[in-house]
Design a protein that fits this description.
18 helices; alpha/beta; globular; 7-stranded parallel β-sheet; 9% strand; two-stranded antiparallel sheet; single chain
């Protein structure tokens, strides 16, 4: 008797039940951190360049079932920056319930284009030229000395790479010079003007987002929709960091324009700004947690990797400029607080010195509000890369002050505190320990 033909069709991975598919994709799930909800931001940022992440992205495109199973792993960290395009991108991501469900932490980059450079072509040119000179000294000269006949910033195809010595000469030509410029030199001057106009436009857009509270309110409206306890990470530099090398930023015109338009981290801003930019940026460290709390998304884990900008604009700020009581209230549920550099790639800092006791008072109030949380369990205050030094007179005749942590530590009241770490302060800067306990190193 002839055997009947088996009509059962082959079963593929897409035919498996969703709960099984979710278990399979759990193998690719990145390490989020400890079980108490703390987020390992460095590990998660590294995850975005891994083979596992590429597998998740490709699986989403295969079929409906794989899309449902893998999408919650697509965006474990919601990256935001201080511009409208970033906010719109975040809105699109959060509009997808599958992606929204998987967001575990929020990283907000607060790099900025200050008015001091946006309102002065000369200052903008000098600042960028110094940056380019530093990159050229590090990378370009070494390649020239190695005998490479190609442009030190060109690619192997020899495309539209820029020649830095010619660019520098063109930018340093005064407006009343009688020198006859070459076509290449004139093109570099045009590039400077073009990039400056774009920089000014981006500054005005950023300034508007901050001054009318659009940025803060929009971020809060997004974070209240998250399904997991809020882990908030504030940084002042882009991630992944811009790593200058032989192909960047003078390898091509597009790379160059991107470099010239880029916002600055807070260390750079503090060196060249001492006005409204300083005040508005430092206010974000206070206003963002308050807005999240008022929207119903009180942060549970907070990481601050940008030092509050010092300067006369903060020292002379009116009492109502900073809502310290509001920050106290918004911090009541914080279980984890980390203040200090969170990534190993952070550049070495310069020596920072408070210009007045009021500058130090701002830092005391910021840290004291967060560390006063009765729910605090893990606290790390790492001043190592913030460049705090002892008091004295600077070469400019400005009296500076020691930074003493007593005002911060005296506000720690949590009976659930398990770990307290303090790094990067000089001997004598800490005199009082909470609950008579020494911190771990």
């Amino acid at each position: 008797m002839a055997l009947s033909q088996d009509s059962t069709s082959a079963v593929g991975i897409a035919d498996l039940p969703l709960d099984i598919l979710r278990q399979i994709f759990a193998v690719f799930e990145p390490p989020y951190g400890n079980r108490n909800g703390k987020i390992d931001f460095p590990a998660l940022n590294s995850f975005f360049g891994s083979d596992e992440y590429r597998t998740i992205k490709n699986a989403r495109l295969a079929c409906w079932a794989l899309n449902v199973a893998s999408s919650p792993l697509l965006c474990p960290i919601l990256h935001l920056s201080l511009d409208q395009a970033s906010l719109e991108h975040a809105k699109n991501l959060c509009s997808n319930p599958l992606i929204l469900y998987g967001i575990r932490g929020v990283q907000i980059c607060l790099s900025y284009r200050p008015s001091e450079t946006a309102n002065s072509l000369q200052r903008y040119k000098d600042f960028r030229l110094n940056e380019l000179q530093s990159i050229y000294d590090t990378y370009g000269r070494s390649e020239e000395e190695a005998g490479d006949s190609r442009s030190p910033y060109g690619d192997q195809e020899g495309s539209d790479a820029l020649d830095f010595p010619t660019l520098r000469r063109a930018w340093n030509v005064g407006p009343y010079t009688k020198l006859i410029l070459s076509d290449e030199e004139r093109s570099y001057q045009d590039l400077l003007k073009e990039s400056y106009e774009t920089y000014k436009e981006r500054h005005e857009a950023q300034s508007g987002l901050v001054s009318d509270n659009t940025f803060v309110s929009t971020v809060a409206s997004l974070l209240v929709r998250l399904n997991h306890p809020l882990s908030l990470h504030l940084v002042s530099y882009p991630y992944p960091p811009r790593m200058p090398g032989s192909r960047m930023p003078l390898a091509s015109r597009s790379n160059f324009l991107q470099f010239m338009d880029a916002p600055h981290d807070w260390d750079s801003i503090e060196k060249l700004a001492n006005g409204p930019s300083v005040l508005n940026l430092s206010k974000l460290l206070v206003d963002l947690p308050i807005a999240c709390h008022e929207a119903g998304a009180a942060p549970r884990h907070m990481y601050i990797d940008c030092f509050p900008l010092s300067g006369h604009s903060i020292a002379n700020a009116q009492g109502g400029d900073f809502d310290w009581k509001g920050l106290d209230t918004a911090s009541q549920r914080i279980e984890t607080f980390h203040f200090g550099p969170f990534f190993r790639h952070r550049k070495a800092s310069y020596t920072r010195r408070f210009r007045s006791t009021l500058d130090q008072g701002f830092v005391d109030k910021l840290l004291g509000s967060v560390t006063s949380s009765p729910s605090l369990r893990y606290c790390s205050l790492n001043m190592d890369q913030f460049g705090l030094r002892g008091g004295g007179w600077t070469k400019h005749g400005v009296l500076t002050f020691n930074y003493n942590l007593d005002a911060v530590l005296s506000r720690i009241c949590s009976h659930s505190l398990k770990i307290l770490k303090i790094r990067g302060v000089w001997n004598g800067c800490v005199k009082t320990w909470p609950r008579n306990q020494k911190p771990s190193s």
